[in-house]
Amino acid sequence: MRPPYRIACLSLLAAIVLSLLGVPAFAQEPALPAKFGAWTTSGAVPSASSLPQPLQQELGAKAGEAADYTNGGKTIHAVLEKFKDPSSAYSAYTGQLQVGMAPTDVRPYSAVNGERMLLLIGNFLLHLDGVKGISAADLRTLALAIQGRADTTPLPPIRNYLPEERLIQGTQRYAFGPAGFQAALGTLSQGKFASLADSIGFSSGAEAMLASYLIAPGKPQTLLLIEYPTPQLAEQHLRHIQADLSNSNLSGTNVERKASLLSLVFSPANERVAAQLRNEINYETQVTWNEPSHTLTDPPWLLVVKNIFLGTFAFCGLALVLGLAFGGVRVITKRLLPGKVFDRPENMEVLQLGLSGKRIDPRDFY
Predict the structure, then answer these.
(1) CA 179/CA 56 separation, integer angstroms
(2) How far apart are CA 127 and CA 120, in angstroms?
């Protein structure tokens, strides 16, 4: 029999060889469940992504899954797209939103339009067709089953900076790369601003969020937010964007910076509209100082007087105790050992003036 460590080494070597040959060492379990509630499927099959190739690479799109679920005479079709992380899935989710899609109570990020529903589940994007034949409770059960296999790291904070007032639902777009940014501009009919993709600096960690607002009947206005990791990067790319906006085709659009966030209102109707949109952005900066500090305050005068009296009484009490102890030891010693420790006659001298002939004996004093 081969030693266990040899078996482990052979297994590892086989896995490496299979990976180099493009053959999966272990079959990946599908994320779509075989059953949820009363709905069942014959099995999930691979599904190709419908996104353009540059966008697939930018979002890290992986091989998806598709399945048909049946319940009695009802059928729904599910397609699950997979991405490298929740931010990529959120970018794909916003890119497929359409005006007229209504939010649902199935998940925080979900939208429905007739028979079609879109659900964001971690790094997965779930498409459902034929949802009128399924209950919201069954949809939540399906979403929870998929969530158990999803990456649930937090979504980018920039999504919360958009103003809510007069927002046209379905126009929100999130991008962290030039391919996603240009695709978002195309869906919002703002393709003339595609040249900004180079000056924004997505390679520096920039994130962009776009949305359209109805400032008047039939007059939408598009707002672009760009967040950078640091205010220094925001200031650096602010100058690049200003240079691009000086082009005659983009005249009328300006950019403003607030800490690490840049804001642009594309071709605003007037300065008042642009200023109003910027004032409604939900972005606040805070400056903190981590060095500890101390506040010096004088105690109340009554407390000071009380402490003075207590200190005086304590000192007097200590002096009394020490005096009694010293005196008591001396008296007891003189009683028990008279002339042996204290007041020994041979060690005592008395100065005499010699006015009489009698010599003074020191013992006469004790």
Answers:
(1) 9
(2) 9
Task: Enter the tokens of residue 344.
Answer: 């020994």
Query: What is the average pLDDT across 66-85?
Result: 95
pTM: 0.71
- Element of type H or E holding 311: helix 301-336
Alpha-carbon distance values, 87 to 39, 105, 314 (Å): 30, 21, 70
**How far apart (Å, rounded) are the C-alpha atoms in residues 336 and 173?**
104
Write the pLDDT tens digit of every residue in 131-165: 999 999 999 999 999 999 999 899 999 999 999 99
- CB environment 272-294: b (16+ within 10 A), e (fewer): ebbebbbeeeebeeeeeeeeeee
**Whole-number pLDDT of residue 181:** 97
Query: In sequence order, what DSSP letters do the residues of 91-157 get, joined into one string?
Result: HHHHHT--TTPEE-SSSSSEEEETTEEEEEETTEEEEEE-GGGS-HHHHHHHHHHHHTTS--PPPPG
Q: Where are the beta strands (DSSP E) in the chain?
A: 35-36, 39-40, 45-47, 62-71, 74-82, 102-103, 110-113, 116-121, 124-129, 173-175, 207-216, 219-227, 255-258, 261-265
Task: For the chain, list the domains and their CATH numbers.
Answer: 30-147 (3.40.1000), 157-279 (no CATH)
Between the CA of residue 18 and those of 22, 27, 51, 63, what are the distances in Å? 6, 12, 29, 19
Structure tokens at 219: 């007059």
* Alpha-carbon gap, residue 277 to 248, rounded angstroms: 24
Q: What's the DSSP call for residue 346?
A: G
CA-based Rg of the chain, rounded to a whole angstrom? 43
The 3-state secondary structure of 262-298, one letter per residue: EEEECCCCCHHHHHHHHHCCCCCCCCCCCCCCCCCCC
Kindly report the backbone phi and psi dihedral angles of residue 47, in degrees, each rounded to the nearest multiple of 5, phi listed first: -135, 135
